[in-house]
Amino acid sequence: MPYGYNGKILHINLTTGEMTVEEPPESFYRQYMGGSALNLYYLLREMPPGVDPLSPGNVLAMSVGVTTGAPVSGQSRLTVSAKSPLTGAIGDAQSGGFFPAEMKFAGFDAFIIKGRSPKPVYLWVHDGEYELRDASHLWGKITGEVEAILKEELGDEQVEIAQIGPAAEIGVRFAAIINMSNRANGRTGMGAVMASKNLKAIAVRGKEGKKNFTVANPQALSELARRGAKILPESDVAGLAKYGTAETTGAQQAMGMLPSYNFNSGVFDEWEKIDGTTMYDTILRGAAEGKQDLRGRDTCYACTIRCKRVVEIKDGPYQVDPHYGGPEYETTSTFGNYCGVSDLAAIAKANEICNKYGMDTISCGATIAWAMECFENGKITLEDTGGIELRFGNAEAMVKMTEMIARREGFGDVLANGSHRAAEMIGRGTDEYLITSHKQEAPAHMPQLKRSLALIYAVNPFGADHQSSEHDGAYEGDKLSYPERMAALGLTQPQPKLSLGPEKVRFARITQYLYSLMDSANVCQFVYGPAWQLYGPQELRDMIEYVTGWDVTIEELLTVGERRLNLLRAFNAREGIERDQDTLPKKMFDKPLEGGPTAGIAVDRQQFEAALDEYYRQNGWDVETGNPTRFKLEELGLGWVADQLNL
Prior knowledge:
39% helix, Aldehyde Ferredoxin Oxidoreductase Protein, subunit A, domain 2, Aldehyde Ferredoxin Oxidoreductase Protein, subunit A, domain 3, alpha+beta, six-stranded mixed β-sheet
């Protein structure tokens, strides 16, 4: 009897309706942990190269981790992977909430989904039992409606549901998978893949599984959980708990690192109107009544931080239902400062639309911002937009275009493909304004200033991502802010600002392994990590041991992260994606920032290219192609992957 995990993986063939249960050995779980690494194991083994992402041949893998469901902060995470319809490369997306823990209690560590159902269906999994049910009555309905219908149909308000919205059904390429109507596996279009399989939802419930869930060392785990609750008020994440991730808006502005007007500037004069503190004081649920206790805060299973925003707007042009949560920093930025929009209610409305219809807020908001810059420069016209003045600062146009994308109406039908594909469709030099890497829109952290992120945005296999490594500020300056946590990773030499030499590359690579591990063990990056987290790498190691009983080391765990990174790169190599796509958009090299303390700064191309070479060398990869070598793959126990690549 394993501790922490079930040892069962459910394979679903939607074409035939056949379902089988696999029971891998303990060694498999220790090697891959769960999450992204486990998903990639099945994608590489069961999907041939060259598959159309929206065809039945794509494999959709959904998994939790070996510690999911344990009574401690930061473990209720779900990773979904498949070939991305947005990028054509590997797709990978994480979410939190209560669905991951309930999936574990329902009896399974992963769902491996193949084929395409001849009609809409949903998967019902409860206490080790599973069945496919008709979902024709759910097709076309928004997430809140589907949740209500299924909970009544299944006779249990505590059923957790991961689902696609109408945006996925009509092929929005950055469609998300949504649980709780407000938690998103958002990036890379995993919702569009799920919709292409005619799979509307997955409902899970584990009454007996929760009762019988066991860990190896419950006393030590309980002490770790109590310690987290005790140190939270004095920790760096206390502000995160109260104000959400948007509490960072002011700090980004002060440093000239708040990406504004489609990344043309690092400052936004009206930033205070969309800051996390303003949200707390104005539109968080309970703010109007002056409530202080847990105002507008939701949480994930067993987490003490409670950082999830819940907003409510009852009056005005943008009324918002609290059922759909509230915007985080990336969302306030992409619909806000990216678009030059300072109307917080409009931003919250755009977030609600994305959660109702099932779309990634980052790609959606960034795609609209790109279209606004194109419009400002005459590359997109009123004729294209159907008469909508798609200009920076136009909140009404931003909300309207979000709705049009969700329904693929008018110009929204073009933007529903993401900015990279939209630029290919439109032409006219619109590609000059893109902020994409590997065809995915950049999140709200600026590689012009965070030089290690410039590298990670470029090399990350599933596109620009801000949660795939630690940010530069943690390793810059005269001394380390978190010396013990960094020392646990072998990082003891903080670097100058705007540097990207070998040691900064090593920092990017090592922390990339750590974050890669966290997306495989499926733990929250705001709870475990080297900076701005409740705990740190040592506590992550401890937690995994307390749950599973494995006497792991930090080095072993980092190897899991390195293994996952090599699996991601190997998948892309099979698809013909190599070093030439490991780059940044032209504007980040060629167009210096405007205004504020970072005016005149751009990414240094020569520095960037030298860092790329260094990064490949440090990873043990081929510098010419950027691909893993046979030696490296065999070192990581992935000789079978090397065979696939004919190395």
